[in-house]
Amino acid sequence: MDELVSLCKRRGFIFQSGEIYGGLQGMYDYGPLGVELKNNLKNAWWSSMVYENDNIEGLDASILSNPTVLKYSGHEDTFSDPMVDCKTCKSRFREDQLPESCNKGKCDFTEPRQFNLMFKTNVGPIDDGTSFAYLRPETAQQIFTNFKNVVDSSSKALPFGIAQIGKAFRNEITPRNFIFRVREFEQMELEFFVHPGTDEDWHKTWVKKRLDWWEKQGVPKGSIELYDVPDDELAHYSKGTIDIMYKFPHGLEELEGIANRTDFDLGSHTKNQDELNISAKVMPNNNSNTRLAIQDLNSKKWVVPYVIEPSAGVDRGVLAIMNEAYNLEDLGEGKERIVLKLKPHLSPIKAAVIPLKKNNDGLVNKASELKKTLQKLNLGRIVLENTGNIGKGYRRHDEIGTPLCITIDFESLDDNTATVRDRDTMQQERVSINDLPEYLIQRINE
Ligand code: GAP
Question: Could you tell which of 17, 167, 316, 318 is best to mutate to test the pocket of ligand 1, judged by most ligand atoms within 8 Å of the CB?
């Protein structure tokens, strides 16, 4: 973990938020390379959900949430962790993460108390505690409250899904392990609505789909274990949850949860609950003005769909992917290199174009033209690396995971070819500059 944290800071992937003022616990900022990696990961997810499935639609809902939404979702009552205070050092811990001793000696703990993890903020000009909103603790709730809007505007029939990527906030008692447990993070969530009775099959289907997807992002099944969450650990909305547990540098922990949320959420937020044959135990709702159900085309009966929810953390995804990609290679003769073997579609920079000499106009102009041509392919970021030090350029691009370095030398001016160096094998080959766009497209999409 220390090596990853150091690489992230040194190369501009991830920084402690507000570091110049001592930082803010549980918050991180993504730097120039981190934001590219994170966007690439989110795009891969979006593509695999929304673009590859005509029965999945996207959504981008507000973060600030009406408290009534989180009342009926059950979060006001149940979204809490038991916490314990140490009377000796005055620190606060999660009950399941108590230290043996604190910095002032032996701990003297209070009885556990429930601590709600939702952040609240004032809305409007008057701060008297009556007009507030929550920062959403999961992106899912706005998917449920928009259920009818999406169904009506996109004419969906079961089974279908609504996908969303966005920030979520939790006032974690003990944020830790770098970007693993933070207070502000991003989720990629799909709520997949199915006919009651087909939910268990769909649950299995989604677990398999999600494992395959993580493998394509460079997180192999061998680094993952599935955890069938026992009944006494299930979230209040879940009938069954399978957690995808990844071997993070600090231990085996949850990367993604895939829950069978039954008809709990739509059933909680709908009006006319009594008429809808809801199977989950829900709080009576007299505030909702909308029926969150779908009419069965054959029987004409109204059905409250069951929901299968694959919910993945973007930040935990970034950490897992970087951990898998990180390699320290022995090059012999006492030399070694750090290489980030990211899948090319995730790499922050797809190719670096390097003129052999930084002060030679002919080389620099040719390299600059090539950069512009390759950039227009829209594969992601292409950089012109005009430092004049090829060896240093290779080392930097190995460390940040750039799949290809393309060197423009004097031969390039004569025969319009360039040297392409592969990050993983370090092999070099001469490629015609005219063929480079096609070459790059193939390498990035492989
Ligand atoms: N909508 C369901 C839900 O939010 P969750 O298991 O609480 O379920 C889903 O969260 C995913 O969000 C987790 O698998 C994890 O990847 C990510 N996540 C949750 N809390 C987090 C935190 N404090 N920091 C970073 N990621 C977190």
Answer: 316
**C-alpha distance from residue 341 to each of 14, 264, 319, 364 (Å):** 18, 42, 14, 28
Summarised one tens digit per residue, pLDDT across range 12-24 is: 999 999 999 998 8
How confident is the model at residue 108, as a pLDDT?
83
312 C-alpha to center of ligand 1: Å? 7
- Measured CA to CA in angstroms, residue 67 lies from 63, 73, 125 at distances of 12, 10, 18
Q: What angle do CA 231, 237, 239 make, to 5 degrees?
A: 45
The verdict on the CB of residue 243 being under 6 Å from ligand 1 is no
Per residue in 404-431, pLDDT tens? Answer: 999 999 999 999 999 999 999 999 999 9
The CA 230 to ligand 1 mean position distance, Å, reads: 18
pLDDT at 94 over 80: no
User: Do 266 and 272 touch, CB atoms closer than 8 A?
Assistant: no
Cβ–ligand 1 distance for 257 under 6 Å, the answer yes
Query: Closest ligand 1 atom, CA of 175?
Result: 23
Burial class of residue 286, CB neighbours in 10 A (0-12, 13-18, 19+): exposed
% of the chain exceeding 70 in pLDDT: 100
For ligand 1, the distance from its centroid to the CA atom of residue 216, given in whole angstroms, is 21
Task: Supply the residue whose CA is at minimum distance from atom 24 of ligand 1.
Answer: 181
Ligand 1 touching residue 136 (CB < 6 A): no
Please give the DSSP secondary-structure letter assigned to residue 109.
B
Q: Is the CB of 203 under 6 A from ligand 1?
A: no
CA of 324 to the centre of ligand 1 (A): 20
**Ligand 1, atom 16: closest residue by C-alpha:** 313
By the 8 A CB rule, do 305 and 365 touch? no
Structure confidence at residue 236 as a pLDDT band (50, 70, 90): very high
| Amino acid 63: pLDDT | 97
Q: Residue holding tokens 């492989």?
A: 446
pLDDT of 45 reads: 98
Cα distance between residue 352 and residue 303, in whole Å: 54
Express each pLDDT in 16-55 by its tens digit: 999 999 988 899 999 999 999 999 999 999 999 999 999 9
